[in-house]
Design a protein that fits this description.
about 190 residues
Length: about 190
């Protein structure tokens, strides 16, 4: 009978959870959500009678810029979360826990400028869709969903991180912006 040590078994399980989290995360965030955004934008524009804005010559490079910046932040943040934080991105506050829970608070790389660089990256990439297709209703919906994400992060995600990382997260939260990358704030020390 083949004997597998607990440590080796744990490593295999952790690797499978990382891969599953990445595959599900990509499927949801990289396929289902963009597909839905595209079709909802077109439907809403037709329903509301909105015309396509801008020209392809303006929308295409602008869309490519937003998509590139967004994907850069998503991949950069995911890489650091996995390798420095020793956790994974597919972990939604006790609702769905597929990826291993992050063991170490990551405050470097894109996390130095925003507490949610994956969200910033995803939303920036998602904004490229209504830009590419010239959807005015898509721009409006983008800001509505950005507001909902803000509420989620403030009311749910921040509480989980505070429970998990305590004072370390509190200090981090006081100097780094929630979603949009900004230079870190100076914190007064008494």
């Amino acid at each position: 009978m083949l004997y597998i040590s607990k440590k080796f078994y744990g490593l295999i399980l952790k690797t499978v959870r990382h891969i599953l989290g990445l595959v599900l995360g990509f499927g949801l965030n990289g396929v289902i959500i963009p597909f839905s955004i595209y079709h909802v934008n077109i439907f809403c524009d037709k329903l509301l009678g909105f015309e396509t804005f801008g020209t392809d010559a303006i929308r295409t490079p602008l869309g490519i810029l937003f998509l590139s910046v967004g994907l850069f932040f998503v991949f950069w943040a995911n890489t650091l979360l996995i390798f420095r934080g020793k956790g994974g991105p597919f972990n939604y506050h006790r609702l769905v826990t597929i990826s291993p829970t992050t063991k170490k608070l990551v405050t470097t790389g894109p996390y130095r400028y925003t507490r949610n660089p994956m969200a910033f990256g995803a939303f920036t990439a998602y904004l490229s869709i209504p830009i590419f297709i010239g959807s005015f209703s898509g721009i409006i919906l983008f800001f509505f969903f950005l507001f909902l994400a803000y509420l989620y992060f403030k009311q749910i995600e921040e509480k989980r991180l505070l429970e998990h990382f305590g004072e370390e997260f509190e200090k981090y939260r006081n100097r780094v912006s929630l979603i949009f990358p900004l230079p870190p704030r100076k914190v007064k020390t008494d």
